[in-house]
Design brief:
heterodimer, A: Rossmann fold, 22 helices, disordered N terminus, B: about 160 residues, alpha+beta, Alpha-Beta Plaits, 2 domains, 4-stranded antiparallel β-sheet, binds thiamine diphosphate, binds magnesium ion
Chain lengths: ~600, ~160
């Protein structure tokens, strides 16, 4: 009865909407979102946002998803954006709603993800008076947004939304905040709604095509190289340039490595692929980088988790650096040939220029031979499921391999932060861009589950797995309730090592094994019972012999969220691991083996 | 090395805080900063001086240029330019004689029986020396504007 009534009210609302030429600021905001093609908004209501929520209620084009914490809203919008390439939208109220969104914003900012966060603000006349639930959202978010807008009058809303989406999605993408004082969404103030068909911003003109002279210089270096490598990052995925990247790598037969953010841009199962590089990159990827005579960096930013000590980084290599953000070029590592432009356009020009030349591939043979030797010597063991550990414990790598096997490599995999994240990146082969969703730049524990919600909303038919740890999952575990409300059948794969494993690993390696506050003294909940209390399915695995059948059951329950809680060996470390303060060839390979 | 950077930005609330915020956020120093609307009232011109090597200054200008409100940025040191600063000094009238003021190329902008206010315009390092020289006069207050700069060739910072 109640739902019927709500339905009728909604219908009435729609009819009212269609007959109306005048809109309030609240209606204008929602209509603007619809104009931008937004179908989903993740959010949480509160006083300053209530006019907006009423505007949402009165229409049916933009669906609102009620999360359980604003951090979850922004991560969900972020996961939606990462998996689809379309901007994600979150809606929060002022004050605590806005501050709860901050971690989500910082996460999206560090990974250059197009997210638009709309925050309610106190009435304009109250701004600056320390009024109830007032926070200077523009000020607080300033260093972690690409741009932000404080609405000054209701009539500006359509143009601001248009600009916000334009800025968020073009150039180097990033999050944009629109802070809306409550009086500008007041239903009693109406005006003519006109959505701008285009906007012109004299101060914002992101680069597109790369300079042709620079492309020619790059080609010269490429033709000369004997020990080259392509190193690509999240920029290639953001710019939908995976096809071009793959074409370039195939054309040249160059070995290729991806950053944590770039996994999937080149097929993970292709023999040309070296695996991930950097802090926990493969032995062969790091050795190739260190010994290369040419590095072609595309949409990657020479982050400190990649270079190790930048003063010792790849000293023999010339560097070609393609990036849409000119400020990334020569920021950390000097670029011999800097190219500013979109990854897609620059790669396309590079490929067509290269095709004018005779590309001699034979001279790469010794290099490929060397790489095979490295791989055979210390490459990752991708048959871990065949290993039966002496201590009877399950290795975390085995769980990832089991997941890979059961999902046939086709799942969307989101992750949190810690050892489990690195194992997922190392052992699940991602053949497609946007398949691997994780917080690489900020390293935000709590990202995995809410981002998986965003992915599952975008791809209701696909398997979405969240590889997490018992530490990280507890940072946004409240979203289990959202998952039940909306029937999201996410597969939570919890690598339960009963510890903040990555912290513990560092304490083992650098602090003489003093585990300061990295374990929980038997205070962990029964995750299966917890999930069941939220209406989901919980499956506990303690024995290796049960792992594969439990995984099969977990993945086969298509309509259910399953929390697969696997007890893994708490003493396992992630290797390889770069030794700080050195070049990329200084790696720990196991607890008692290192490269130097 | 000291650098003078000039930029044009949208004359909008929030624009200045983004520019200033960038400096603290990225660990750059601001030595001086001046901002005022231009004759196109939709634009403000901001001049700042900072200390840094070539690489740092390049990063600063690129990061500034990235800000959405910033329309155009120029490292004035890339070509010949003129730099000037304004200084106002308040002295006890008895501490300085008129011919001395003339020698220092100062201008009297206010005086009564006890107090005299002087104005000086010059290159910042000249003003530094002047401040030293004025020490013996025990100035009551000295206020400096920070540098303004303009390139001395035909190049202009416009949109
Ligand atoms: C919000 C947040 N707080 C702290 C950290 C630091 N941190 C990085 S990994 C880690 C441990 C994660 O534990 P768990 O989720 O159980 O993963 P494991 O390493 O055990 O696989 C911590 C505390 C972080 N990345 N994010
Ligand atoms: Mg753990």
């Amino acid at each position: 009865m109640l739902t019927l009534l709500a339905f009728d009210l909604k219908l009435l609302g729609i009819m009212r909407d269609m007959s109306k030429t005048q809109t309030s600021g609240g209606d204008a905001l929602i209509r603007s979102l619809h104009e931008e093609g937004v179908e989903l908004v993740f959010g949480y209501p509160g006083g300053a946002a209530l006019h907006i929520y009423d505007a949402l209620f009165n229409q049916s084009e933009v669906e609102h998803i009620l999360v359980r914490h604003e951090q979850g809203a922004v991560h969900a919008a972020d996961g939606y954006a990462r998996s689809t390439g379309k901007p994600g939208v979150a809606l929060v109220t002022s004050g605590p709603g806005a501050t709860n969104a901050i971690t989500g914003l910082a996460t999206a900012f560090m990974d250059s993800i197009p997210v638009v966060v709309i925050s309610g603000q106190v009435k304009s006349e109250l701004i600056g008076t320390d009024s109830f639930q007032e926070t200077d959202m523009i000020g607080v978010s300033r260093p972690i947004v690409k741009h932000s807008f404080l609405v000054q009058k209701a009539e500006d809303i359509p143009e601001i939304v248009k600009k916000a989406f334009h800025i968020a999605t073009t150039g180097r993408p990033g999050p944009v905040v629109i802070d809306v004082p409550k009086d500008f969404t007041d239903p009693n103030h109406t005006f003519d709604f006109v959505y701008p068909s285009e906007i012109n911003m004299r101060s914002y003109k992101p680069a597109k095509a790369g300079d042709s002279k620079q492309i020619k210089k790059a080609v010269d270096l490429i033709l000369e190289a004997k020990q080259p490598v392509i190193y690509s990052g999240g920029g290639v995925i953001n710019d939908n340039a995976s096809a071009e990247l793959t074409e370039l790598a195939k054309l040249l037969q160059f070995p290729i490595t991806n950053t944590l953010m770039g996994l999937g841009a080149f097929p993970g199962t292709d023999p040309q692929f070296l695996g991930m590089l950097g802090m926990h990159g493969t032995y062969e990827a790091n050795m190739v980088m260190h010994n290369a005579d040419l590095i072609i960096a595309v949409g990657a930013r020479f982050d400190d988790r990649i270079t190790n000590d930048p003063k010792k980084f790849a000293l023999k290599a010339k560097k070609i650096h393609i990036d849409v953000d000119p400020a990334s070029l020569s920021k950390i590592i000097h670029a011999d040939v800097p190219i500013t432009g979109s990854a897609k356009e620059c790669l396309t020009s590079l490929i067509s220029e290269l095709k004018q030349h005779n590309i001699e591939k034979n001279k790469l043979e010794p290099w490929h031979k060397q790489i095979t030797e490295w791989r055979n010597k210390h490459g990752l063991n991708h048959s871990m499921l065949d290993v039966v550990p002496e201590n009877g414990k399950i290795l975390p790598q085995q769980v990832i391999q089991s997941l890979y096997k059961e999902t046939e490599g086709k799942a969307f995999v989101t992750s949190d932060v810690g050892q489990h994240q690195m194992f997922a990146a190392q052992y699940y082969f991602f053949d497609k861009p946007r398949q691997w969703i994780n917080s690489g730049g900020l390293g935000t524990m709590g990202f995995g589950l809410p981002s998986a919600m965003g992915v599952q909303f975008a791809y209701p038919e696909d398997t979405v797995a969240c590889v997490t740890g018992e530490g990280s999952i507890q940072m946004c575990i409240q979203e289990l309730s959202t998952c039940f409300q909306y029937g999201l059948p996410i597969k939570i794969i919890n690598l339960n090592n009963a510890a903040l494993g990555m912290v513990k690993q560092w304490q083992d390696m650098q602090y003489g094994g003093r585990h300061s506050s990295s374990t929980y003294e038997n205070s962990l909940p029964d995750f299966c019972a917890l999930s069941e209390s939220y209406g989901h399915v919980g499956i506990k695995v303690t024995q290796l012999s049960e792992l594969e059948s439990a995984m099969k059951e977990c993945i086969s329950l298509k309509d259910k969220l399953v929390f697969l809680d696997v007890d893994v060996d708490p003493d396992e470390h992630v290797y390889p691991m770069l030794e700080a303060g050195n070049a990329m060839d200084y790696m720990h390979l196991s607890k008692d083996k290192k490269t130097w | 090395m000291k650098r003078v950077i000039a930029l044009l930005m949208e004359n909008q609330p929030g624009a200045l805080s983004r520019v200033v915020g960038l400096f603290s956020q990225r660990g750059y120093n601001i030595e001086t900063l001046i901002v005022a609307p231009t004759n196109d009232p939709t634009l403000s011109r901001l001049t700042m001086t900072t200390i840094g090597d070539e690489k740092v200054v390049q990063q600063i200008t690129k990061q500034l240029d990235k800000l959405i409100d910033v329309v155009t940025v120029c490292d004035l040191g890339e070509s010949e330019f003129v730099e000037r600063e304004l200084m106002l000094v308040k002295l006890n009238k008895s501490s300085i004689a008129i011919d001395e003021i003339e020698k220092l190329q100062g201008k009297v902008v206010f005086e009564d029986n006890n107090i005299i206010n002087l104005q000086f315009v010059g290159e910042p390092d000249k003003l530094d020396k002047l401040v030293d020289n004025l020490k013996t006069k025990e100035p009551l207050e000295i206020v400096r504007s920070g540098s303004l700069g303009i390139s001395s060739n035909s190049k202009t910072l416009t949109i």
